[in-house]
Design brief:
eight-stranded mixed β-sheet; Purple Acid Phosphatase, chain A, domain 2; single chain; DNA replication; DNA_pol_a/d/e_bsu; OB fold (Dihydrolipoamide Acetyltransferase, E2P); DNA_pol_D_N; DNA binding
């Protein structure tokens, strides 16, 4: 008598969601470069003037609110008053095309610098008509950047500068109480688990910095595609991967670094440049293969990064379909701009590949603040008009980590695709059925500290935000 084990086939159905690309940063064929930033600054000042007026009067009481032009009309120049305007920071180390040209022509050398802020920087506040220099120690140049709209309290000195006694910012938008806020509060505690709720319906998977140009073929990419497509893991793992309704590659997928060449003597490294171009093509083909596997099972959004093959200046335009010939055949692939804003399900999602925050960090030189903290500062400066969840995505090529976002609760968590090393690691194996619970079988290999126990997929207990100080791509 023979017995046959019958295994029930469980089919995981991936949920469909609404997707809309607002195409806000898509440039027309007739590109125009004659517009200046002044209109943008004036529009933001006009939009935030009433908010700052209310905040200033609430904080300081009944002071006169004047324009910069009206300061000269005061009888007593030392009478304190309030000015509302846009901050401009004058920086000596800020890159200039004229300085670069002078450096190249060996007229005057410009010292190379990774950061452009110094103690000698000067702050100005300007409105629609004119500007005035700020003095005093209440507004530190390293804590603020050009374009921030604020209100300052103080008086004008005899030398024409405005002495700042205090200042205030627009602040974060008032939080709107909603049904989600009451019934499903956003969790940011480390006790929350990626797999705590099997029935959580819709999730996003965010990745950045695959850097296939500098990353050899590795098991991490196979684990990534197999988990998303439902091949890897047990039933619970497949059920949770089935809840991923959108995968977002947030830039620098093909390349994570850029090689620069001087114009002088450029013919020398030309062969090296040609070889780099060939390697970039190979990296693009590898990325196309990865995306091609995923788009057959899930919707994918590909955003270009600073080093990907598209235009360098912001806004970067979508990667050309010819670079992704295999995956571009599927309607489930969306190639977008950088920055990008659109609608996924009932949520507005906006993101960039990180250049904006990195530029803010360059002109601030506050090394003790993380990219996520600078991203939070943009909310205090009110560069956004919505209640949002801030997410900083780690570089996948270095951490093998991706970020999962629950679209219902906005809860975030990280998931790692990599090898489980021997030692005291604080990891939970997702594939419980394949885990070797017999510790005695591994006793012979304990002397090798570098031995890979097995390749597996694990969830990092340290949840919430993934931060990489070298290359943060932000959603």
């Amino acid at each position: 008598m023979s017995l046959t084990n019958v295994t029930e086939n469980i089919v995981q159905e991936r949920k469909c969601i609404e997707f809309e690309d607002f195409k806000r940063f898509k440039l027309s064929k007739d590109k125009k470069y004659d517009k200046q930033y002044s209109k943008i600054y004036n529009a933001r000042l006009k939009a935030l003037r009433d908010v700052l007026t209310k905040n200033a009067l609430s904080k300081w009481g009944d002071y006169k609110i004047l324009t910069i032009k009206n300061l000269a009309e005061l009888v007593d120049h030392h009478e304190s008053s309030i000015i509302i305007g846009t901050i401009y920071k004058h920086q000596l180390l800020k890159p200039s095309i004229l300085k670069e040209y002078a450096d190249e022509a060996q007229v005057k050398s410009q010292p190379a610098s990774k950061f452009f802020s110094t103690e000698k920087d000067n702050l100005y506040i300007e409105d629609e008509v004119q500007r005035v220099m700020l003095s005093g120690g209440h507004v530190h140049p390293m804590e603020i950047v050009t374009g921030v709209v604020c209100a300052v309290l103080g008086y004008q000195l005899d030398d024409g500068t405005f002495w700042v006694e205090d200042y205030c910012l627009p602040g974060i938008c008032p939080k709107k109480i909603s049904t989600i806020d009451i019934k499903s509060p956003v969790s940011t505690s480390s006790s929350s688990s990626l797999f705590s709720d099997k029935y959580s319906s819709k999730k996003l998977l965010l990745l950045s910095g695959l850097d296939l140009y500098n990353t050899p073929d590795s098991m991490q990419f196979e684990l990534l595609t197999e988990w998303i497509t439902g091949i890897a893991g047990n039933d619970d793992s497949q059920e949770n991967s089935g809840s991923i309704c959108q995968v977002i590659f947030a830039g620098n997928s093909m390349r994570g670094t850029i090689e620069t060449f001087e114009h002088t003597g450029f013919s020398g490294p030309k062969n090296k440049y040609t070889a780099a171009a060939k390697d970039t093509i190979l990296a693009a083909n590898r990325f196309d293969d990865i995306v091609n596997e995923i788009v057959q099972a899930c919707c994918v959004l590909v955003m270009p990064g600073e080093c990907d093959p598209t235009n360098y200046s912001l806004p970067q335009q979508p990667i050309h379909p010819a670079i992704l010939p295999k995956s571009s055949k599927y309607k489930t692939l969306n190639v977008t701009t950088n920055p990008w804003i659109g609608k996924i399900d009932d949520k507005i999602v906006a993101g960039s590949s990180g250049q904006i925050i990195r530029d803010i960090m360059k002109v601030s030189s506050l090394f003790n603040l993380s990219p996520l903290e600078w991203l939070e500062k943009t909310l205090i400066w009110r560069n956004e008009g919505q209640n949002i969840r801030l997410i900083s995505i780690p570089k996948f090529s270095e951490t093998q980590q991706a970020v999962i976002v629950d679209l219902e609760t906005l809860e975030t968590s990280t998931i790692t695709f990599g090898s489980c090393w021997k030692g005291n690691n604080d990891y939970d194996d997702i594939d419980d059925d394949n885990r070797d619970d017999d510790k005695s079988d591994d006793d012979d290999d304990d002397d090798d500290p570098n031995k890979t126990d097995k390749f597996n997929l694990y969830s990092n207990k340290s949840m919430n935000y993934g931060i990489d100080s070298d290359n943060d791509d932000l959603m």
